[in-house]
Amino acid sequence: MTGSNEFKLNQCPEDGISAIKFSPNTSQFLLVSSWDCTVRLYDITSNNMRLKYQHSAAVLDCAFHDPTHSWSGGLDLSLKMRDLNTDQESIVGSHDASIRCVEYCPEVNVMVTGSWDQTVKLWDPRTPCNAGTFAQPERVCINIVYDIILKLIANKGYAHLLLKLESFAPVNMLLHLLGYVLSSIEGRVAVEYLDPNPEVQKKKYAFKCHRLKENNLEQIYPVNAISFHSVHNTFATGGSDGFVNIWDPFNKKRLCQFHRYPTSIASLAFSNDGSAIAIASSYMYEKGEIEHPEDSIYIRQVTDAETKPK
To answer: Is residue 158 within 8 Å of residue 132, measured between CB atoms?
Structure first.
């Protein structure tokens, strides 16, 4: 049940929601990609879908380049750029397999795509053109967040970035500051650090979450989504249990848990100023083809009491 601090968006996608992203400079606009082959732009203040454009197959990720341009990719292998003012689009390039993730690194002005063809590609949005292709040992299925990769790109001259993910079966990873948070299909989340200094490495830890006692049995749910709060550096997780939790990584505790949403949490996004969080409630077929609630996106206003370390 939603309260006065939360509402559901109108005209939500008709199939699984793959990604939700706030505009980089305002909490007014939200970009959404979906398995229904669309990318949609919403005006949050009026609860109105501003525009919708199509791919020829499911769209797995989308990102803002700037407030007026979006990029998106998915199962059709094509990377699209869309002018959100004129509603004109261009095909920037492609991968040899599905494009799983699309992100923008503003400090070095490159778009980054990761694909199931086992490559990461960098794109110059000014041209636009491919600025480098880097082979990976496996399919790229993680979310690449600019505030770490940009530093590595700037310092290494587009050098290869490889993070060893040994003990987890990852469904989502989020880089932030000098570390990263890695989630698992096993209902676990790990807080890791990139700095090899032993004193820094002592800070890393893992914890169990998104687990429920049902009929005297512990049910373990995948953790599908992570989003960092831009002001307080706390983070939210969303799981297939339908819950969203806010975590304090510094004091290693949960700050709050929202009410249960109708189905799996497929994606999360804090707004750039940290005043709101977008929550995609979208069944992820954990139990196969069954009747399930419709795909929905909720916008929730959040407070310091919910997001600030105590």
So the answer is: yes
